[in-house]
Design goal:
352 residues; 60s Ribosomal Protein L30, Chain: A; 4-stranded mixed sheet; 12 helices; 14 strands; 36% helix; 24% strand; PurM-like_C_sf
């Protein structure tokens, strides 16, 4: 037996299947090919992703923006449901929608998947979701890594993370420094839970003994299907909004909820006052609150409550902003305004 074969056999006895890894790579290639951009350059070695910086030529003083994130314990729900084709979109949304808050155009992403056992079809499903998310965001998937961790993760267990890079003109960076008194807060609807609060969700459903394959009338879907609903990706819509109207700031509403994340895009001497009566949270939120007896304050601290992204725009631009988003199929509404204050986002009133 050749030395390489002996090594592979020894590695397999330790729980690492090199052949399965090779098959997973072969299965994911067609998906990765759909998540490209003209600037992607093939690296025949496969050790790194190459991206031509032609995009920077149109900038006077370009800044690179970088972000990294994961999907948290939403992966546990996917593993319990044995459905793995949606998490990739969640991963991309968490990364690119952080990038676009500064006004940056997402250029490319890389991913990392750690698992207890490489099941090629499962890995291909995960990467297919990532590739689809990149396609929706207009960025390229230039590389990734799949690592098998036998003995430290169960054979059906995995986690995934990603990193993204974007580009923005230095004097066009969005943020608190642009926000002014009287600005309007535009809310963009979430598709549901997105990727936050799942530790609380899992505790509630486990304590209640709820089955993920049970149909829940008030949700109009099986519980697992609702919990795995993919994150809405806003990057392209936000870039279009900034190109067609004046935008002062964006906020990606993730862990910490609407108030905490919106406050990050406010200057220290201004507040945002948001009227809860301007929207009705999707059914999954009252479902969680009722089944888990979760107080409103805790719900708003853990979940997006139906708002996945906000834009702060001049009051005079609010209608134009809503028109742009409507044309792009993004449900949106004026949820509040900016006033003098101390850098807080205040939620007032009650949901309809």
């Amino acid at each position: 037996m050749a030395e390489g074969a002996e090594t592979a056999s020894a590695y397999a006895s330790a729980g690492v299947d090199i052949a399965a890894g090779d098959r997973a790579v072969a299965l994911m290639k067609e998906h990765v090919a759909r998540a490209g951009r003209p600037e992607v350059v093939s690296d025949s070695s496969g050790f790194a992703g190459l991206f031509r910086l032609d995009a920077a030529k149109k900038y006077r003083s370009p800044l690179l923006a970088a972000s990294t994130d994961g999907v948290g314990t939403k992966a546990t729900i996917a593993q319990r449901c044995d459905r793995h084709d949606t998490l990739g979109r969640d991963l991309v949304g968490m990364v690119v929608d952080d990038l676009v808050v500064s006004g940056a155009e997402p250029l490319f992403m890389t991913d990392y998947i750690a698992c207890g056992k490489v099941v090629p079809e499962r890995i291909a499903d995960l990467v297919a979701g990532i590739a689809e998310g990149c396609r929706l965001a207009g960025c390229a998937l230039v590389g990734g890594e799949t690592a098998e961790h036998p003995g430290t993760m169960r054979s059906d267990e995995y986690d995934l993370a990603g990193a993204g890079t974007g580009i923005v003109e230095e004097d066009e960076v969005l943020g608190p420094h642009r926000v002014r008194t009287g600005d309007a807060v535009i809310a963009m609807a979430s598709s549901g839970l997105h990727s936050n609060g799942y530790s609380l969700v899992r505790r509630i459903i486990d304590e209640a003994g709820m089955r993920l394959d049970a149909r829940v009338p008030e949700l109009g879907a099986e519980l697992g299907e609702e919990l795995l609903r993919p994150t809405r990706i806003y990057a392209g819509d936000c870039l279009a909004l900034a190109a067609e109207t004046e935008v002062h700031a964006f906020s990606h509403i993730t862990g910490g909820g609407l108030a905490a994340n919106l406050a990050r895009s406010l200057p220290e001497d201004h507040d945002a006052v948001v009227d809860r009566s301007t929207w009705t949270p999707p059914a999954v939120f009252p479902f969680i609150a009722e089944r888990g007896s979760v107080p409103q304050a805790d719900m708003e601290a853990a979940f997006n409550m139906g708002v996945g992204m906000t834009a702060v725009v001049p009051a005079a631009s609010a209608e134009a902003a809503l028109a742009v988003l409507a044309e792009r199929g993004v449900p949106a509404w004026k949820a509040g305004s900016v006033v003098a204050g101390t850098g807080q986002a205040r939620l007032e009133g009650a949901h309809t």
